[in-house]
Amino acid sequence: MRAQRVITAVIIIGIAGVLFASRDAIRFRIAEWSKPAVPPAIPRPTLQPSPTSLPDSINLSVPFTSQAPFGVWDADHEDFCEEAAALMAASYLSGDTSITDPAVAEARLQSIKTWELATFGYFRDTTAAETARILTEKLGAMPVQLVRDPTADDLKRFLAAGRLVLVPSAGRLLDNPYFTAPGPVYHMLLLKGYLQDGSFITNDPGTRHGADYVYSSDTIMNAMHDWNGGDVSHGARVVIVVG
Fold first, then answer.
1. 176 against 27, higher pLDDT
2. CA angle 39, 40, 45 (to 5 degrees)
């Protein structure tokens, strides 16, 4: 009888292990199946639309790189989200798509890190203001503007005008199924468009699946928080508008 109980326990543990191991795979498949249709990417608009003439949807053609171009998620690359978001924004403004080559993206991310160490004394967890300095002083992106307490409609107006929006976030509130659980405490992503239902199209450098990744408007607005010395959930609601 005791042997039977042991065998039964082993079988139950084995089944539980298989179910646990497949949990993330199931989440990934559900995420793939449920991806909304995204409109084709377009070049930067030449006109600045008025608030009453916003298109139903827009998707700006922004080159994508993850923060780990070669898929190596070591200590440095776990913290390269701000650098990658800034790099994508600057590449969009200059019309340079070469960062889609992992070797190019990696070299430029490392160059940004070197600049940060010389300028800030560190490179991890840069605030919105510090990331704005990366954009202007290191990458030559202009104009760059910090906007506090934007509404979702404000973000749509920026995007419809061809301006990108970098969003510092409490990363775990994004609930991205591709993040390694429980997700980053602090994260930065790039808004590049929106859908008719108000969802935002992003280039999220935190995953290799991040190109044209769609988040609901509520998710973006709720997660929007600056670094705040590590107390991210109480950080200011601020974004970086580029272009």
1. 176
2. 100
> In sequence order, which ranges of the chain are alpha helices (DSSP H)?
2-33, 81-94, 102-119, 128-133, 152-160, 217-223
Q: Which residues span the domain enclosing 94?
A: 38-242
| Cβ-Cβ contacts under 8 Å for 114 (sequence gap 6 or more) | none
6 lies in the same domain as 92 = no
Query: In angstroms, what CA-CA distances link 188 with 46, 151, 169?
Result: 27, 18, 6
Please indicate, yes or no, whether residues 132 and 27 belong to a single structural domain of this protein.
no
Least Cα distance to 191 among 221, 235, 236, 232 occurs for: 221
The SS3 of residue 161 is coil
Whichever domain contains 164, its CATH number is: 3.90.70.10
Q: Is the pLDDT of residue 18 over 70?
A: no
Contacts of 69 (CB under 8 A, 6+ apart): 102, 103, 105, 106, 109
Q: Prior bond to 143 cis, omega within 30?
A: yes
Give the tokens for residue 237.
């609601």
The reported pTM is 0.85
pLDDT score for 5: 52
Burial tier of 102 (Cβ tally within 10 Å: 0-12, 13-18, 19+): middle
Cβ count within 10 A of residue 42: 13
| pLDDT, tens only, 119-160 | 999 999 999 999 999 999 999 999 999 999 999 999 999 999
Give the tens place of pLDDT for each residue, 81-96.
999 999 999 999 999 9
Q: Are 135 and 89 in contact (CB under 8 A)?
A: yes
